[in-house]
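Q: what sequence does this backbone want?
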């Protein structure tokens, strides 16, 4: 659903709820009053879901503006050839957008984290403010039932909820990796002519475009499987073949090394640097929210205990004691909600993985710069190919860790 469509949905639902509220107040019809809390709950969920996605796009644009100078400093020199300027290399085909898949996954997870807190608040409002029941009290009970049924239904029907996001990113990363394997002539392209490499490329890209999660996991392995089932790692193949195979001019080897340095290593290093900073910022915000909610819950619980002890929390509670009771009941689920969202984002673990990968890439960058200072020859080409396999191994391992961190068999619903 596009941004403009979401805006019209929010506006439409808001107008419908406003009209419903007006009709309920003016007519005081029983059916309208009973359905009013249910309509308000639906409006709140729509606003929450759309609000997160709007905020996500705004935060993405803000981060792009803030990182503009760092990204500009990493722009490759125009004299360095782009990967797609080399023979047989094709740009990545159009596919799913990783950001959209991630946004859908997290929006659903946040909604499920909020549902228990809203259900508790509905029950508390009915108990504290509408203890005599009535149409409005019945409406809050029905709203609570709607929230709980929605939560259970979503959890049961959203098996493997992160799979579209995981599949989208893994496929995108493997498409990108294939381009650089072809650039360096390693892995399945080692020792092949341009014509043979083009045939292998077409077969592998076709397989990758149609691959499911299991096939993608097998595709990510840095080895070839023989007819007898034995695996031959690409790193071993580089050193066993040595300088044999298709000869490459020394100047072209240097060109490919510079392209790989700027368009693969340095770009990926910048990505992990920015992603780690984003995750650390998110973790800090969620951590502060959880701590603030815990402290507020403790303070409200103490205040409620004082009110009960003073005798003002009896059969006829004052407005103050009723509000304090509402907060005392609602803040613990709010703490649980903050912790559930924190677990959903897994920002601390992702930041640690990104930082570790970036450090490894910096080591590979230093190695490649030393290779660029060495004399051109067959040994340089072999060393470069060996380094490419190590770099791709580092990035593939990061992708494996990332998949372990974000993959979920089902939503936990903040319970």
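A:
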């Amino acid at each position: 659903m596009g941004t403009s469509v979401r805006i019209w949905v929010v506006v439409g639902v808001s107008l419908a709820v406003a009209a419903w509220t007006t009709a309920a107040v003016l007519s005081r019809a029983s059916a309208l009053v009973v359905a009013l809390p249910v309509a308000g709950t639906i409006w709140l969920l729509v606003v929450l879901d759309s609000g997160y996605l709007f905020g996500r796009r705004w935060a993405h644009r803000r981060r792009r503006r803030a990182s503009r100078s760092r990204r500009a400093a990493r722009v490759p020199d125009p004299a360095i050839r782009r990967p797609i300027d080399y023979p047989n290399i094709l740009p990545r085909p159009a596919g799913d957008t990783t950001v959209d898949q991630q946004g859908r996954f997290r929006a659903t997870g946040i909604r499920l984290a909020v549902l228990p807190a809203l259900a508790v608040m509905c029950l508390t409002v009915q108990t504290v403010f509408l203890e005599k029941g009535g149409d409005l009290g019945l409406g809050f009970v029905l709203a609570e039932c709607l929230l709980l049924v929605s939560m259970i239904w979503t959890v049961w029907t959203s098996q493997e909820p992160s799979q579209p996001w995981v599949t989208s990113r893994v496929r995108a990363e493997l498409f990108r990796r294939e381009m650089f394997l072809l650039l360096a002539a390693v892995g399945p392209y080692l020792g092949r002519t341009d014509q043979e490499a083009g045939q292998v490329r077409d077969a592998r890209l076709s397989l990758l475009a149609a691959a499911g999660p299991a096939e993608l996991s097998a595709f990510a392995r840095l080895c070839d499987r023989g007819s007898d089932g034995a695996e031959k790692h690409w790193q071993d193949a580089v050193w066993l073949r040595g300088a044999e195979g298709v000869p490459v001019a020394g100047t072209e080897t240097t060109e490919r090394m510079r392209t790989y340095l700027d368009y693969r290593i340095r770009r990926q290093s910048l990505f992990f640097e920015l992603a780690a900073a984003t995750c650390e910022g998110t973790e800090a915000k969620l951590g502060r929210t959880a701590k603030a909610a815990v402290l507020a819950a403790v303070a409200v619980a103490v205040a409620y205990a004082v009110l009960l002890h003073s005798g003002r929390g009896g059969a006829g509670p004052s407005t103050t004691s009723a509000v304090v009771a509402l907060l005392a009941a609602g803040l613990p689920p709010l703490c649980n909600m903050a912790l559930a969202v924190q677990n959903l984002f897994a920002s601390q673990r992702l930041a640690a993985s990104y930082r570790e990968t970036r450090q490894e890439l910096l080591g590979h960058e230093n190695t490649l710069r030393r290779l660029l200072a060495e004399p051109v020859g067959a040994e340089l080409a072999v060393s470069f190919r060996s380094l490419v396999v190590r770099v791709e191994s580092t990035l593939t391992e990061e992708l494996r860790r990332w998949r372990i961190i974000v993959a979920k068999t089902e939503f936990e619903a903040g319970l």
